[in-house]
Amino acid sequence: MDCAAPPERSVERDAALALALPQVPALGWGWRAVEEGLRGAGRAEGAREEAELLFPGGAVDMVEAFIDRADRAMEAIAAGTDFAELRTTGKVKALVLGRLALLGPHREAVRRSVAVLAMPLHARVAAGTLARTVDGIWHLAGDQSADFSWYTKRAILAGVYSATLLYWLREEDDAAVAAFLDRRLQGVGRIGKLRGRVEAALAGVCGAG
Length: 209
Known about the structure:
The protein is mainly alpha-helical. Helix content is 74%, strand content 0%.
């Protein structure tokens, strides 16, 4: 399986996930949360079978679908944000903070998602979801790189986003989260400048040869 490929997407899955989300803080990710969500919507008959059919992998399937739904929601954030006056770093910041704002009502579900993906058994899914998220952020921010910097930018942003998400889980002050993200992004800027100097130096050495 290609870990970079998004999970299955369907109207039925999205609807079931929306019904399950309110149940996750108490029940955790899994078929029971979907089942209870369906029951609450008056769809008790065959609820367990439907849950297993929609998310055959159980909790990790649901978490992957939840993150994918947030990835897709970032497109709406980008469409509703005036990026004309923003540099790339500003666009990245707007997308990350917008994403966290959308996740705000589901903070406990996000916390439980992190716990599920932290299990060694789910390392491949964890890597795939993070890769798709940061790639989506860079893409929406207008990054068109196709050289080696494509990999370095995404690796750096993976660290920035992961650290910011963990900070957000324990800090509910939006201003503090924004300030934390600013500090991380300033570090990215310094790394970018350093990389530029290294590449220029290497080019000079190669040219001298």
